[in-house]
Design goal:
The chain has helices at residues 2-35, 40-71. The protein is mainly alpha-helical. Helix 1 runs antiparallel to helix 2. The longest helix is centred in the first third of the chain and has 34 residues, at 2-35.
Length: 76
């Protein structure tokens, strides 16, 4: 049963990453079309989506990593 919980958490993390990146690119592309700035805002949106994905994944996986560390003996 525990393996399914871990698997579903990882699937959720994957979707979170994909949505952050896709939304960043999509909003940047839309803003580029409105402002006529070429690929500049698309690249900014990509960077913002990547940063948001990185920090979100870190926050999502931090409790699981702490739980594993505590289970293994609590080395600090």
């Amino acid at each position: 049963m525990k393996r399914w919980v871990v698997a579903l958490r990882l699937v959720g993390v994957g979707w979170y990453i994909a949505i952050c990146i896709a939304l960043g690119i999509g909003v940047g592309f839309w803003l580029d079309r409105v402002a006529g700035t070429g690929p500049l805002l698309t690249l900014v949106g990509l960077g913002f989506g990547l940063l948001l994905a990185f920090f979100g994944v870190y926050r999502m996986l931090l409790p699981a990593l702490r739980q594993e560390r505590d289970k293994d003996g609590g080395e600090k």
